[in-house]
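Request: Mind sharing a record?
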Amino acid sequence: MESLLQNLRYSIRLMIKKPAFTATAVFILALGIGANTAIFTVIDAALLRPLPYPEPDRLAHLWETRDQREFSLSEASYPNYLDWKAQNTVFEDMGGYQRRSFSLTGRDTPEEIPGARATAGFFTTLRVEPLLGRTFLAEEDQTNAPQAVILSYSLWQRRFGGDTGILGQSLRLGGNNYTVVGILSPSFQFAPAGAAQLWVTLNPSRGESTARASHWFYPVARLKPGVTIEQAQEEMTAIANRLAEQYPEANAGGGIRLVSIRDQITGSVRPVLLALIVTVALVLLIARANVANLTMVRAAGRHKEIAVRMALGASRAALMRQLMTESVALAALGGAAGLMVAYWGIDLLVRGIPDAQLNLMPFLKNLSIDKKILLFTSAISLLTGVLFGLFPALQSSKLDLTVALKESARASGAPARRRVRDALVVAEIALALVLLVGAGLMIRSLATLLEVDPGLKSENLLTAQLNLPTASYPDHARRAAFAQRLNERLENLSSVKAAGLTSKLPFIGGTTSGFVIRGRAAPAPGDMPEATIRSVTANYFDAIGASLIRGRHFTERDNAQSPNSLIINQSLANRFFADEEPLGQHLTFRFGNESSEWEIVGVVKDISESAMDEKSKSVIYFPLLQYSRQPIGVVIRADDPMSLAAALRSEVQQIDPNLPVFAVQTMESLMGNLPSMFLRRYPALLISAFAAVALLLAMVGIYGVISYSVSQRTQEIGIRVALGADRRDIIRLVLKHAVVLIATGLVAGIAAAILLTRFLSTLLFNVSAQDSLTMAMVAALLASVAMAACYIPARRAARIDPIRALRYE
């Protein structure tokens, strides 16, 4: 211990004596270690930390599948869920939920609060106990049963001041009264339900509980002890096959897919996180290589010091301990600085995530550096110190005393050390190329996605959403009257160019419905055509700037007194009417227990109604005055759209004072926050930033090696100049060494990029992971920048004074 403390004190004095070296090394290490710590903190929260439920590995999320259909994955129907629950032998418990927002009225300002409807078995399946009160009872999980609500801890604190007296009180939600029966704990989160701040009893309507073809419900289940998800999948597939035979009209061709609850929560972001951890690991490797080069250069200048100490009796082991202590102490300082970088980096990482996406990843909120993160940083710092200090320590501790005591410090560049330094630079260039190729692929992918035509004009377009309470707007007539009145008031605003309403805004997805085409053979069970359905007002397409391909738009005459009409998108026309005229064709729909026939009056260009990276699917638009659906989306076109936010709220309040307006944003903002956009923009920005750091470090590394090589060859260069070599000859001599290093690094980097970038394929859009153009452009960029970095010491070498060089010691 006394020897260790002595070595540590000497290391600290040495770092103070060489502040430039210490600051440079600490800065480089802080970047590498800090980036790794920040990303590891996120990965720990998303992938490693246990979910906040007992035995979360036994929880599964269930989906219905529909083979060979345009819409292959969907929510479950409630009757199917009841049969699954009754017939399975692999689940200990089952429950389910439906995302829904609710208008809280009767208490101060009306507010739209995100929430969910849940069965009584939902919380028992998760094994979640409330902080106060209770969860739902089985008798509350029935049609027309008393309605109950459980509040999240954050809503309880924010809206009700943490008042325990709220238990047993009645809240007005969506026009209905709900009794508060419980308060959830602060740690409760259920990411698949988004930012749900309250949970109400499901209370399925009579139609919901009997309509097997209606898909709106998300089941969750807890596996019995000892049952694997694969075994459960096998049994549930058998149940799905039995139900398909029993109910062919609704279930033919259908199946069930089980997804672990962790995969359901983190499945979409896992590729992003894995790509980022590989990226920062490569940055750390480059940082280590850079510091190792610096350490070797410094060690080369200490040969006489080490030789004197060995001559005075210092053992090789003692010298090794001293040199390794110096490396580890330097790495520890870099690790401490890295923690500060990580603290700042974590905040930046979370700030870069849109609220809509962050609501689906609540585990990323309130991230902090805990004991596990400190242990990770300590381990990575120790490993870094050992790795970049080991080779210099080995080389320096086995000196030839006779040679070392005679040679000058500047002439001590042993071939083995030069080869190692060159190898480190080659590795830096190769790793930098891999990161730059990854960044280039992500940027090209993002650019390709941005070039996708969404079918509308997003600029100068305001969007907002409303929820019409069922209690106040129980039927189509009242919903249609509200929509017509609001649309007229908005269009009469002086700065509004066009306004429209829709049941769902673009890019948000929506409900699908089957239909039958008049004059064609009835489809086989399970093969009925399907389409996403929207209800829109007359001026909706004008407001969003959609193109009419043929036929006409809706007008105010398309109301309850006129024949049923609808507009289809181009994809549906191409899919079902490729060889005939779609205008005038009639489609039959079954809504509830009634069937109705509708005539196609127009065809519009495809509008992205779901993710922008998905192929356009069939969409049908109904006149909102003939068929209204919940919720209501508002679109307003104006020169300064956000200036109309207050006016929009005012117009709604004048019609219905208890109706809150929420999610007010521009269409460009809505598009920018889409998951499909986030999953490409976010990693593209981060990988590009890390690639830029890697490029800088690689350039510093090759600059340092070439500069050191020039300093070692000063006398040789002086002799060459004295014998008649001109400046161009000297520059070529120096750059020749650089070209070999750069070329070797590029070849190794391209080979590594071909192997590693394939892991980015799930994040790319219409770009190959082995895109040759990207690799060629990146290689050219890296070679150009590297040569520019080498040209500075080459020019300095060409200006060496031969007289001074020949006196050089």
Summary: The longest strand covers residues 91-105. DSSP finds 26 helices and 23 strands in the chain. The chain has a mean pLDDT of 85. The longest helix spans residues 675-712.
